[in-house]
C-alpha cells in the first residue's frame, strides 16, 4: 500500500513509494536524537532530518511526539533485551559471567550509547506511568536472565549494582580501571549454582 503525505510547502497531496523500513528508520532516528539531545530535545523536525524523511512522514506514522518517544523507547528495549540475553549464551563458569558483566560496564561507544538511552528512558519514566511499566518489564526480563546463573535474589542485587556502575562510568571524568570494576562485580557474585566456579 502506498503512503500518502501532505506536501510541506504546497499543501498538495503526493504519493511516496512503498517504504516498509521507513517506520523503523524513524524510530532509529528518534533514538539518535534522544542520545544527542535527551527527551527534552526531541522534536518531529529533528527526527525527520535525522531519518532523512519528510516531516509529514514522521507525523503520518506517529500522531504525537509522546507516541513517537514511547515507541522509540519500546523499540530500544526490545533490541536491548535481545542483545542482553545473547551476551550470556557462552557463559559456563563464574569468571565468564564476571567478564560479560565487566564488559557491560566498561564497553565502548555502542555500550555508551545504549547506557545513555537507558538512563533517558528511566528519567522519562519518572513522569510517565506508561514508560514506567516498560522499565519494570525490562528490569524483570534482565533479572530473569541473570537469575539463571545466580538465583532471583542475587540477580536483583547484581542488576542494581550494574546500573550504578554504568551510571558512574558514564559520569566519570576519568575511566574506572577495569580491575576495579572486575573486583566490585566479583565481590557481589557468589559461586554459580550448579556451574563451575
TrEMBL record:
**What residue stretch is flagged as signal peptide?**
none
Q: Which domain of life is it from?
A: Bacteria
Q: Name one Pfam family in it.
A: TetR_C_31
Entries under InterPro entries matching the protein? Homeodomain-like_sf, HTH_TetR, Tet_transcr_reg_TetR-rel_C_sf, TetR_C_31
The ranges the UniProt entry gives for DNA binding are 43-62
- Residue spans making up a coiled coil are none
Q: Which GO terms describe its molecular function?
A: DNA binding
Keywords attached to this Swiss-Prot or TrEMBL record, sorted alphabetically, are: DNA-binding, Transcription, Transcription regulation
Cited SUPFAM superfamilies: Homeodomain-like, Tetracyclin repressor-like, C-terminal domain
Which residues does the UniProt record annotate as the domain HTH tetR-type?
20-80
The protein depicted here goes by the name: TetR family transcriptional regulator
Question: Which organism is the protein's source?
Answer: Streptomyces nodosus
